[in-house]
Amino acid sequence: MVVSAPNGIEHPPLLVLLSDGELHSGEWLAKELAQTRAAVWKGVQRLRATGIEVHAVARRGYRLANRVELLDARRITAELTEEGRAHLHGLELRYEVDSTNTRLLAAAPPPPGTADVCASELQHAGRGRLGRRWIAPFGGGIAMSLGWTCSDVVRTLPALSLGVGVAVSRALARAGAQGITLKWPNDIWFRDRKLGGVLIELRAESGGPAHVVIGVGINVSLPAQARREIEAGGAAVAAAADACAAPPSRNAVAGAILDELLSMLVRYERLGFSAFRDEWTTLDGLRDRPAEVTVGGTTIRGVARGVDSDGALLLETRDGLQRFVSGEASLRLSAGDA
Question: Is 7 a residue whose pLDDT tops 80?
């Protein structure tokens, strides 16, 4: 029997008091924390040093730029089904980490059929595909990685990111999101804007099982200022809140993603991508649209025609139907269709 052992996360007490987004006086904070007001000020400086935006209002106190729902292990695991709990080996929540993927890759792999999971409030070296940096404002997103022991890496890996995309889309639907689509091979979209992404990394030894780590980054909410700053760099971004009638709970979204990933992995190992191909095709945000594939320094233009049974992209070009695998190619909408 697998034992699920989720642990809590020790947020700085000052952060907990400020997480409601309301204005609190230095005097009240000092009293609640049994500290001096000078110590409260130093605590504010430490939060700011980690990238958390704390506003100071003269003679009135401090507040966070936005209300924050802090990660909570009990609320996350409350979203797991009985099956999900059976396949969860360990859940670690951290206040800050360099990269959740890196942390799990450095750890021992979990027992076969179970997963170790790491999620963090702050991620200082989060990575996306092709080495891009993943940026998310504090408290507005989910940075989560899941480690899994894979017995048949050759069969499992090629289309795994597509299976992950299906799992994440299911989780977002559980949170009330509508209109979620997927962009091959690993982006989560809403109205042609990136809502999240997937990064899969591997540590394997010759002849033995592989330790696969699945990293998922999701924007749950994006304050207007953060959205402007990200889009100033040329990225079109979205958040789960954009796709929901009411703002979703960050912990509920994290728990739903974890539950759907665990369910997907068990089924994927047994049946492969074939069990998810139809659903992925339904969610395909680029199907039958003009698109460009870049391989090395070469750009090939055509019309996206979905994926084959192995999860490879199919692009209809003047030279016929061409096939691309995710490790070698980068895909985007053609300029006139963005």
Answer: no
Q: What is the pLDDT of residues 316-337, one digit of tens each?
A: 999 999 999 877 788 888 765 5
Q: Which residues contact 16 (CB under 8 A, 6 or more apart)?
A: 70
Quick count: other Cβ atoms within 10 Å of Cβ 29? Answer: 22
**Greatest alpha-carbon span in the chain:** 73
Catalytically annotated residue among 183, 194, 227, 250: 194
Residue-range domain boundaries for the chain = 22-64, 73-281, 286-337
Query: Class of 286-337 per CATH?
Result: mainly beta
List the catalytic residue out of 63, 94, 129, 227. 129
Q: How confident is the prediction for the chain on average, in pLDDT?
A: 90
Sheet containing 330-333: give its strands across.
Answer: 320-324, 313-317, 298-307, 290-295, 330-333
332 is known as an active-site residue? yes
CA gap 278, 291 in Å, rounded: 21
CATH number for the segment(s) 22-64: 1.10.10.10
Place of tokens 């780590």: 213
Which has the minimum average pLDDT: 34-48, 131-145, 308-322? 131-145
Element (H, E) at 293: strand 290-295
Sheet with 210-219: strands ordered across: 88-97, 115-123, 141-150, 210-219, 193-204, 187-190, 180-183
Check if CATH label 3.40.50.2300 holds for domain 73-281: no
DSSP string, 243-261: GSSSPPPHHHHHHHHHHHH
How far apart are alpha carbons 24 and 335 in whole angstroms?
Answer: 48
Query: Which tokens go with 316?
Result: 């209809």
Catalytic (active site) residue 194: yes
Residue 4 has pLDDT above 60, yes or no: no
- Look up 318 and say whether it is catalytic: no
